[in-house]
Amino acid sequence: MTHAALLKAHFNSVTAENEMKFESLQRTENNFTYDAADRIVNFAVENNMKIRGHALVWHSQNPSWLFSNGAGGTVSRDVLQSRMRNHISNVVRHFRGKVYAWDVVNEAIMEDGSYRSGSLADGQRSRWHEILGEGYIAQAFRYAHEADPDAKLFYNDFYNYIPAKQQGIYNMLKGLLDQGVPVHGVGLQAHFNIEPSTVSTNQAYYQHVANLEEAIKLYSSLGLEVQVTELDVSLYIPGVTYNASTFYTAATFTDELKAKQAARYREFFELFRRYRSAITGVTFWGIADDNTWLSEFSSGRKDFPLLFDDDHNPKPAFDAVMDF
Ligand code: XIL
């Protein structure tokens, strides 16, 4: 089967973006629900696909009971630690032998290189850090390793092209390795845009190939594997204001724009190939443009960030990525 035919046959309604998150797997305490995740995992196993698990410990998409003491207050440190261990052990054991790599901790470092703490705005703050302190990161990796000693364990984050953030991630990883914590790799989420921002205060001002290259060099200098874990290339440029009249549609996603997106994909893949000895995987955050987290259907802002179009046919970006 061609790629496109395989997609048409199987991926019409499958997403694997949320099914392994805490709130999906343990909506109420100690009741693990694996059906949705198992369907995807079994499909992948039957089709000889490798599976990355995403994500064990994250500040987002957690059930409300997790950080609660059940009496209107905050969970104690000891109880949260044992909840973390219970979750990681159960989930990692369930998928043992099928999931070869885990995003153990997701998004623990901020754009300025500091730890994501409990004092940020709702939705941004990490209650893991607030209650357990930064030691939660080392513990999560230890628990995951204990549950599956063969799994490759990753730290995963976004905006790795920002110099201060990549340095913060590097420092954290170096500290973990110095303590003997079982961390094997770094995931670069790689949610990119069709061009960097020209606004110097915008995170995407740093979204240049050369800056991402620095991150790859830094992390791999620690002996860690690097994987691109959530790749997509949005048509929207951060720092530019869009409205209903400038949101992209099939009609305004012109051939010229398709070629520009393909060129952006190409430049990043040229980088990935130059670092082929360090980069052990590239995973996209979706398959085709009809199903992407970047399309905000409530506002009507549709995006076209992936390699296959709304009808599941390959785009110029696909050809650019395959041409080497
Ligand atoms: C996103 C999913 O794609 C959405 O469906 C969901 O509503 C929110 O989460 N970084 C991550 C992913 O690590 O888990 C996020 O996935 C995208 C950003």
Explain what you see:
This protein has 324 residues and is an alpha/beta fold. The chain folds into two domains: 9-157, TIM Barrel (Alpha-Beta Barrel), CATH 3.20.20.80; 189-324, Glycosidases (TIM Barrel). The protein is 36% helix and 14% strand. The protein has helices at 3-10, 22-25, 35-46, 77-94, 127-132, 135-147, 163-178, 209-220, 255-274, 316-322; strands spanning 51-57, 99-106, 152-157, 185-188, 191-193, 225-234, 279-284. Strands 1, 2, 3, 4, 5, 6 and 7 form a seven-stranded parallel β-sheet that branches. Helix 4 runs parallel beside helix 6 (135-147) and helix 7 runs parallel beside helix 8. The protein binds (3S,4R)-3-hydroxy-2-oxopiperidin-4-yl beta-D-xylopyranoside. The site of (3S,4R)-3-hydroxy-2-oxopiperidin-4-yl beta-D-xylopyranoside (XIL) has 6 residues, from loops. (3S,4R)-3-hydroxy-2-oxopiperidin-4-yl beta-D-xylopyranoside binds at residues 17-18, 106, 189, 230, 293.
CATH second-level architecture of the largest domain: Alpha-Beta Barrel
- What is the strand content? 5-15%
Kindly give the count of domains.
Answer: 2
Enumerate the distinct ligands.
Answer: (3S,4R)-3-hydroxy-2-oxopiperidin-4-yl beta-D-xylopyranoside
CATH topology of the largest domain: TIM Barrel
Q: What is the CA-CA span between the terminal residues?
A: 22 Å
Keywords:
binds (3S,4R)-3-hydroxy-2-oxopiperidin-4-yl beta-D-xylopyranoside, 36% helix, 10 helices, globular, 14% strand, 2 domains, TIM Barrel
A few lines on this structure:
By secondary structure, this protein is an alpha/beta fold.
